[in-house]
Amino acid sequence: MDVVAVSLAQNNRCYEVIVADDWQGLGPFIRGCVDSPHAFVVADTNTLPLAGAVQSALLDAGHRVDSAVLPPGESQKTLSSAAILYDQLSDVGAGRDTLVVAVGGGVIGDLAGFVAATYMRGLPLLMVPTTLLAMVDSSVGGKVAVNHWRAKNLIGAFHQPIGVWANLIALVTLPDREFRCGLAEVVKYGVVLDAELFDYLESRAESILDREPSVLAHIVGRSCRLKADIVTRDERETAGARAILNYGHTFGHAFEQAAAYEGWRHGEAVAVGMACAARLAVQRGLLSRDVAERQQHLLERFGLPVVPEAWPLDGIVAAMRHDKKSLGSRLRLVLPDRLGHAALVGDVSDEEVRQALQVE
Ligand code: GLY
């Protein structure tokens, strides 16, 4: 078991991310985090068997347990789904001490987290990520949101969980496509923060794809530590540090939105977004071609797409302008300048973006 502490400046709080390989410790972990008589578990139809194990742990820990099950997929991450969950919370008599437990990937975590942030002005939230992507990124750091038709994650909040229980067992049965999506976020950490992690991913690609438990434990633990460090330094993305984690995401969110969230999954869109951002950085003379190529090869090795679809460029640029990182009409992008380091660049022109989107 690996324990990663996330220290928060606000209210001098700290919570733990547990990287475990069983459910046994979950009940005692919850008891140590929160004193709550009632839990409301949110899962989707894919995570239902895992939600069963979580519910048993909650019952053992003395909670009254209610639950909601949603269809899977990014198209569920809407205000309408949130409204359904508000109704259900109200139906079961949830109070301010009800613990919302998100059992799922990024969609369930973001949606249940958004509901926890807003119902009765805030309920405690426990994250139980069941995908690699949620374990290494979305369950840690308190960003919760639903999508708006104009842009992904446009309506949201910062609502830190009381704890995160990442059980690597969930990765054994994770569909291949979902697993590869998570690898996109791990590659992101390597490119923008940790050259050593990037080298590790290159040298252990085979074992990673074989899902060797010790290798998975390493990449999940390392990614969570990198994220925890950033969140400690810049919890609300006001100091610049946290924005670096959006590498590839401004392009990626625009791709997801262009396909009405029915095309690439988030991790796939981010992979193509990173390839575009690296190309733009090379065009600007910021990044060496060699690093951009290493990134591209690694993404391809992990079976991720790297070439944008032939969407109308104007639509993609317009969607990128709606990204939360844009300032007024200026596009701001995270661009790597060497392996393990990146900067937020505020003067990116539409023409540069168009060029980066066009791959011969
Ligand atoms: N996924 C980027 C962040 O949490 O800041």
Topology:
Layout (H helix, E strand, L loop, with lengths): L1 E7 L4 E8 L5 H8 L4 E7 L3 H13 L3 E7 L8 H13 L6 E7 L1 H13 L6 E5 L2 H7 L4 E6 L2 E8 L4 E5 L8 H18 L1 H9 L1 H5 L3 H21 L15 H10 L7 H18 L5 H13 L11 H9 L9 E8 L2 E8 L1 H8 L3
Parallel strand pairs: 2-9, 3-4, 3-5, 5-6, 6-9
Antiparallel strand pairs: 1-2, 7-8, 10-11
Helix pairs in contact: 3-4, 5-6, 5-9, 6-7, 6-11, 10-11, 10-13, 11-12, 11-14
Could you walk me through the main structural features you see in this protein, from its secondary elements to its overall organization?
By secondary structure, the chain is α/β, with parallel strands linked by helices. It has 14 helices and 11 strands. A 7-stranded mixed β-sheet has the order 1-2-9-6-5-3-4, with helices on both faces. Strands 7-8 form a two-stranded antiparallel ribbon. The chain has a two-stranded antiparallel sheet with strand order 10-11. A hairpin with a 4-residue loop joins strand 1 and strand 2 (13-20). The radius of gyration is 20 Å and the shape is globular. The N and C termini lie far apart (47 Å). Glycine binds at residues 137, 141, 143, 242, 245-246.
